[in-house]
Design a protein that fits this description.
single chain; alpha/beta; L-arginine/glycine Amidinotransferase, Chain A; three-stranded mixed β-sheet; 5 helices; 15 strands; globular
Length: about 240
């Protein structure tokens, strides 16, 4: 079963779900001794979103995860890790916001999301659990949110910053400067994940980002250090999501 809350491993991560299209990043993750469960390829999505993990799964709570109903093979692979693996009630579609059914952040007992874009079953569970929703205009919420700690996030999206301010310490950075082949630029959440409680990993070289010094200082303030997986420009691969 999952042994940590969503996005917040305490010890070294052993298993992640991620896109395996970018072989250099995949190899660097596996070189850390991490087992990789590949995301699926969803043909109805835009080409640069088809393998993005943050479009396909949502780690909701300690032992609960939501998976797109079109990703049954992935759901089966996740069953050994979670007590409850839920398939979405709604079906994903290519056009926004029908493509962001699970693109949300579960952090410190709260859900950051564009609430009216979430899957119907997920909305029912959130309501039943009485979880606080921090509603944002940005449907690509997980893509756009880098989780630093249980109390801190980084984003380039002003609506996420506005929604989360007061509940979390938020660092607002410049948009862009993150590669996402097929579109103008990617997002900070899609190129980061926690390796353990103390280390935040980046798919590329964080030193190349114009906000590097602010990011470094912000993370150090929350006792988190930075690790670059490659020497390239940061690349949005649709999040790397730790599950054990």
């Amino acid at each position: 079963m999952s042994n940590f809350f969503p996005n917040l491993p305490v010890e070294d991560v052993k298993t992640v779900v991620m896109s395996t299209i970018d072989k250099e990043i995949l190899n660097r993750v596996e070189a850390l001794g991490i087992e990789v469960i590949p995301s699926e390829n969803i043909q109805c999505l835009l080409p640069f979103e088809r393998t993005h993990t943050d479009m396909q799964i949502f780690h909701y709570s300690l032992d609960e995860i939501f998976v797109l109903n079109s990703c049954e093979e992935l759901a089966d692979k996740l069953k050994p890790f979670f007590q409850n693996v839920y398939l979405t009630q709604d079906s994903i579609a290519g056009e926004y916001p029908k493509n962001v059914l699970l693109n949300a952040v579960s952090l410190n007992g709260m859900i950051i999301c564009k609430a009216d874009s979430l899957d119907s079953r997920l909305q029912i569970v959130i309501s039943a659990d009485g979880k606080k929703i921090l509603n944002t205009k940005q449907g690509y919420t997980k893509c756009s949110t880098c989780i630093v700690s249980e109390n801190a996030i980084i984003t380039s999206d002003r609506s996420i910053c506005k929604a989360a301010n007061g509940s979390f310490d938020v660092l607002l950075i410049n948009s862009g400067h993150i590669d996402l082949p097929g579109t103008d630029y990617g997002f900070i959440g899609g190129c980061t994940f926690k390796l353990n409680k103390d280390i935040l990993a980046f798919t590329g070289n964080i030193n190349r980002h114009p906000d590097y010094l602010n990011i470094k200082a912000f993370c150090r303030n929350h006792n988190v250090f930075l690790h670059s997986l490659t020497d390239r420009t940061l690349t949005d691969i649709g999040s790397i999501i730790p599950i054990s």
